[in-house]
């Protein structure tokens, strides 16, 4: 099975540098244009369907991609939603580390739970759409945690993902997942920077 995790398009909170998390902020016009532009970069012959997280910005991005690629939208998965940042949501990112040293936000979903939750979504998609080639629209932090969970590297070591960045996964015959690309770059090219960040930590 082939699956690509795609970050949703831009929102006004993304533009303003505000912590978003589970807050259901819609796409802005730039985000819609980003999704439209991404259609031209994706070969519809390589994919069968589109799914998303249940948050509006992901669902709208998925709908734009599906329409442009002439693919069906085949479901929304709660386990693909962004990490819950609790009390920090709505706060400028530039203020986060001052207000919450160590990023210990009240009500925050524990970092250690995010990757496994995202992998549960992959497994659910595999059951629901066995053998399909799936585009899954989700969220930047969630995607980084999933990549970390699957590759054995820290989510924080992964680079920030741009809006509409695509990271491709492949499910092997033994049911394990392999990270093929990160934001469009081959995993082998990303790996040295992951190791460098982890060695420096």
From TrEMBL:
Name the catalytic site residues. Answer: 8 (tele-phosphohistidine intermediate), 82 (proton donor/acceptor)
- Cellular component per GO, a single term: cytoplasm
Q: Which SMART domains match?
A: PGAM (SM00855)
Q: Which residues form a coiled coil?
A: none
Quick one: which residues bind substrate? 7-14, 57
Q: What is its EC number?
A: 5.4.2.12
What does the UniProt keyword field contain? Isomerase
Question: Recorded GO terms, molecular function?
Answer: phosphatase activity; phosphoglycerate mutase activity
Q: Which domain of life is it from?
A: Bacteria
Give a single Pfam family match.
Answer: His_Phos_1
Task: Show the PANTHER family listed in the entry.
Answer: ADENOSYLCOBALAMIN_ALPHA-RIBAZOLE PHOSPHATASE, BROAD-SPECIFICITY PHOSPHATASE YOR283W-RELATED
Per its record, how is this protein called by name? Phosphoglycerate mutase
């Amino acid at each position: 099975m082939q699956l690509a995790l795609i970050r949703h398009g831009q929102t006004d909170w993304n533009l303003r540098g505000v912590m978003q998390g589970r807050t259901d902020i819609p796409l802005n016009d730039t985000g819609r244009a980003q999704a439209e532009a991404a259609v031209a970069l994706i070969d519809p012959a390589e994919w069968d369907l589109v799914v998303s997280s249940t948050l509006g910005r992901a669902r709208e991005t998925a709908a734009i991609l599906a329409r442009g690629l002439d693919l069906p939208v085949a479901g929304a998965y709660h386990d693909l939603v962004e990490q819950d940042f609790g009390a920090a949501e709505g706060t400028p990112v530039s203020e986060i580390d001052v207000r919450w040293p160590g990023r210990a936000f009240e009500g925050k979903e524990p970092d250690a739970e995010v990757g496994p939750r995202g992998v549960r979504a992959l497994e659910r998609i595999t059951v629901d759409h066995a053998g399909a080639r799936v585009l899954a629209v989700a969220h930047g932090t969630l995607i980084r945690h999933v990549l970390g969970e699957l590759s054995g590297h820290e989510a924080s070591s992964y680079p920030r993902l741009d809006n509409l960045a695509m990271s491709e996964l492949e499910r092997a015959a033994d049911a394990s997942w392999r990270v093929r690309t990160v934001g469009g770059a081959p995993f082998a090219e990303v790996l040295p920077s992951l190791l460098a960040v982890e060695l420096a930590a």
